[in-house]
Every structure is written in C-alpha cells, then in structure tokens.
Design a protein that fits this description.
With 155 residues, the chain is α/β, with parallel strands linked by helices. Helix content is 26%, strand content 31%.
C-alpha cells in the first residue's frame, strides 16, 4: 500500500536523546518505529489494524508488536519503563475527548520520570493543555506533518 512507502517523520531521526526503550502509539506500518530501531532504540508498537501490524512486522521486525488499543498499554508495559513515547498522527489526534484523558494517563504511567513524549498532530499544545497537567511542554512547533509537541512528565 501507498502508506507503507512513506518515510519516517524527519524529526524522529533526531530524538531528544539517544537510545533506550521507545513505544510507538498508533504505529501504522512501522515507518517511525523502524527509524528509531535503526538508531539503536528498543521498541514496542501499538496498532489496532491487522493489515498495519502485518506491514509493520515486515518493516520493523525487531519491535514487539501489540495489536491492542493504546488504552491497554499500561496493562502490558511495566510502570515507568519507557524512555520515549511517540504518537504521530495517532491517538492524540483521533481519540474522542472522553477517552483522551485516560490515554494520556496511560502514557504518563509508562514513561520514566526523565522520559519524553513526542506527539505529531494538528493541534497546538495549548489545545491539548486541559488534559496535559501531568506534563511539562518542552517544545511546540510547526513541522512538515503538522505540529511537534515534546512533553516531559512532571513526576
């Protein structure tokens, strides 16, 4: 499929720090996971759609693939075990307002205190702010795919 051939989001080729455990939330066909794995990260990918998981397992076979909802990630991953979470045009953009706080809380539970959450979406950080009180916004800027928001857990 056409989406399988898309390159990784360029900003992810320069993560905020090097190496560790990353999770790709709404990983699609694994384009961004493959980029991080090639940079030496270990990774888990969460994606609901079977065809995307199948494509991702080809593109990023070293990742652990979970065909599960991102709302289940805290049930699968150890608490405070993740250094970097990425969400590129995924759940932060798609979830309804009643599920967004639960998703954000799940990501917060899995991130290490010095971890980072990179979100690429079409919203500004201040538009997500009502749900992000557990995070400090380190960056919020325009990029080719929308806006890049970099967050760090407050505790």
């Amino acid at each position: 499929p056409e989406w399988f051939d898309l390159p990784a989001t360029p900003e992810l080729a320069r993560p905020p720090f090097g190496g560790g455990r990353a999770i790709d939330l709404g990983a699609g066909g694994g384009r961004n996971a493959a980029c991080l794995l090639n940079l030496g990260w270990r990774g888990d990918c969460f994606e609901l759609y079977p065809h995307a998981v199948a494509a991702g397992q080809i593109r990023a076979p070293q990742a652990q693939w979970h065909q599960r909802s991102v709302l289940e990630l805290a049930d699968i991953l150890e608490r405070r075990s993740v250094d970097l979470a990425i969400d590129v045009l995924g759940p932060a953009c798609d979830l309804k307002e009643d599920l967004l706080p639960r998703y954000i809380n799940r990501v917060h539970q899995t991130l290490r205190p010095d971890g980072r959450w990179l979100i690429v979406c079409f919203l500004r950080a201040d538009e997500l702010a009502p749900w992000l009180e557990q995070f400090e916004c380190l960056e919020d800027r325009d990029i080719s795919e929308g806006r890049l928001i970099e967050l760090r857990p407050l505790s």
